[in-house]
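Researcher: Batch entry, complex prediction.
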Amino acid sequence: MADVLRGLGVSAGAAAGPALRMGRVPRLPAPRTVTDQAAERAAAREAFDQVGRELAERAARAADPAARAILEAQALIAKDPMLAESCDGAIGAGLDAAHAVHTAFTQQADGLRAAGGYLAERAADLEDLRDRAVAWLLGEPMPGIPDPGHPFVLIADDLAPADTATLDPRRVLALVTARGGPTSHTAILARALGLPAVVACQEALAVEDGTLIHIDGDTGAVTLHVTAAVIAETAAETAGSPAESFAGPGRTADGHRVPLLLNIGSADDLPADAATDVEGVEGVGLLRTELLFLGRHDAPGLDEQREAYTRVFRALPGRRVVLRTLDAGADKPLPFLSLADEPNPALGIRGLRTSRTRPEVLETQLAAVAEAAAAADADVWVMAPMVSTAREAADFAARVRAHGLSKVGAMIEVPAAALRAAQILEHVDFLSIGTNDLGQYTMAADRQCGELADLLDPWQPALLDLIASCARAGKAAGKPVGVCGEAASDPWLACVLVGLGISSLSMSRAAVARVGARLSRYSYGDCVRLAESALAAADAAAARAAVTSAS
Amino acid sequence: MPERTVTVASSSGLHARPAAMFVKAAAAQPVPVKLRIGDGPAADARSILAVLALRVEHGTAVTLSTGAEDGPAAHEALNTLADLLSRDLDAEPANG
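Model: Structure tokens for the complex:
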């Protein structure tokens, strides 16, 4: 294996430390014919011991008494004589150790579940222990996020939303995944937690546990077998990062103001003290209203929506809150819209297009927004997702203004809309560029397709060209053009966007300090030059290299 | 056949931490101990799964037994475990 693996850097920053792979739930192979039952019994016993020992070690390290009690109880279960007996019985009946362990745990778990109540809640613990014991017997890494008791770089095939619940950002230094792309769950999570991340690095899974590695979330390089000195140096650099001291507001070194805003799904995503100038954030640049109603079969009513929006508006008195109307799509199912099955949902009825068939849903939402805006004194802006034509923008603007809401905008996600930004701006007050979708439609590459991650790179010069043309249209019209896609979370790319003429950047909370700090080190003129060098590059990698090496 | 009947004092009964403390103490005894409620089925006191399955609530009288084992070690084991059950383990510090 080469000493430097290449992936796609999707969350900025560098980190170094021992690599640990995350195992998946093991799949039992076909049963083996057992020739030596005593050996199988010994192997099974060793698996129980191993799992029990690992849990006892984790319990001993746990700082939180509640967490320690849970881990201790799990360690006791692994050493339970009933399980061992039941496992021995299964081996006596001819099963190999892995199948016998699996059977013994599953029987107990089923029994607990049948008992119901408090005991049923323990069934999942038993299944977790079972998967650990079976993985050990099969020589696979233990399932779940490892907890070795020291900081490490997590290597995984890909991360599922459920994995994130157990990911401790104080232990995990960085993420490297074999699959995924710039807009995959791993990437979004990493940026939200402020962890450097490299995705689409297929060779990473072959890295042995414990190998000392260095990852660069800007360039996507994963360097193997680094020295302890490199690790210490990287840790020192991270600790001394000026990102820690960013106080806001967002501006370049020479005072060119660039409001930094948050992408949120509900009031719960706001800092507790959002009303003060925390973290240099000046408001919300993207309120994803559909996240409040995901998976719902009944359309949310006027009162429910008004209440949800009011919570956000009241948390930000006097601040800008850009609300995006419902954005349903293949990855964000809203069953109450009862959209027909489509052969290609990304090119189907989604975003603003749903109002063609269900105009009353948009009407109810706008009425709720208007009432919520009247009940608070936030500066409420309303925008539509997936606008394709100036006519659509005009229709949307008329509907919004009919509700007494004065600031209307269009999201730019469709290349057609980017090309006609000037005409769209004749009807609306602002534009907000969703770089994730604009990238996928510009490059004709599905956001979910990890193998096309290079095409989905937000540094693609074609994407930057479209952003530049929107920014020029905004300048000519004297109207703001912001970016609310994940591109705004990349500190270098944020400088480029400002240089292209973007007027505000909206991102996840964890990215604000990094982006704000980077921006404050360059003048507006520097940003313009960085943008020019990115636009002049032949491809995404060259664009990134041109900008990061110019510093 | 040495036996001791004792009322479980822990406020949560024999669940969660009190159950774990009891099972650990039972496993540390030199003789095997069984636990039952009234004339119900006896559970191996060293098995957390068996003890949890008894669903012992606060205030329940439970019987500890060493079966055929008799002698000083058996009595000592019963005393230790009976003492544990008669304390409110939920009220004791977690590091005990």
